[in-house]
Amino acid sequence: MFRKGEDDLGEIYGVQWRKWPAYKRIDTGNVAAIELALGQGYRQIAESEEDGQSFVVLYKAIDQIRQCIDTIINDPGSRRILFHGWNRAQLDEMALPPCHLLYQLHPNPQTREISLTLYIRSNDLGLGTPFNLTEGAALLSLIGRLTGYTPRWFTYFIGDAHVYENHLDMLNEQMTREPYPMPKLVISDRVPEFAKTGVYQPEWLELIEPSDFSLEGYQHHPAMTAPMAV
Fold first, then answer.
1. Is 68 an annotated catalytic residue?
2. Beta-carbon neighbour count of residue 96 at 10 Å?
3. With contact defined as beta carbons under 8 Å apart, do 95 and 84 qualify?
4. Residue 2: pLDDT band with limits 50, 70, 90
5. DSSP states of 133-200 as a string?
6. pLDDT tens by residue, 169-214
7. Of 70, 73, 91, 128, whose CB neighbour count within 10 A is largest?
8. CATH class of this structure's domain 63-216
9. Identified catalytic residue from 37, 72, 94, 99
């Protein structure tokens, strides 16, 4: 009932990463807490009463990825630079509960390197894993570019790894192929490099385009396909 059509994923991934719906319920008499929340960007959207106690409801959308890169700039030693998509209140509004679930970034101010840990609750090795590896590497490279860090390690955890029966032919064929040399991921020169400019420009989270990413030296075998299984 929440999705706009068969191809709409609902309130998943990007919605939760960039606009996590955050609510606060505060007793009306707690003026200091209300003022603090308003100062943090919340806005009051409702007022009600329960068991004789009046309260207000406040809301704001939280940009988790922006908070992460702000923290990399301002507090790179933090062990809390992470974002995730497991919003229990909205799981029923998603086509599928999030698979690539939690991302944690690890900047090293001494070496100016940054690593990424990704935890995936459930991973389809035939179709999901190649996409998630590519997406994670691109994200790590972009965040490193915007914050002045060189990508180092991408650590990939899978809670439940599986192969669907209707993917076996494709994967057996893939196992017979000799890998080509690895290509190099390149980000367009139009995307600013903090390491060169010294200017922090987080607005590029909105300005980046798929065409800003390319692969140098990419060779590939003939394309293979398999049906998506959910």
1. no
2. 11
3. no
4. low
5. HHHHHHHHHHHHHHHT-EEEEEEEEESSEE--GGGHHHHHHHHTSPPPPP-EEEE-TTS--HHHH---
6. 999 999 999 999 999 999 999 999 999 999 999 999 999 999 999 9
7. 128
8. alpha beta
9. 99
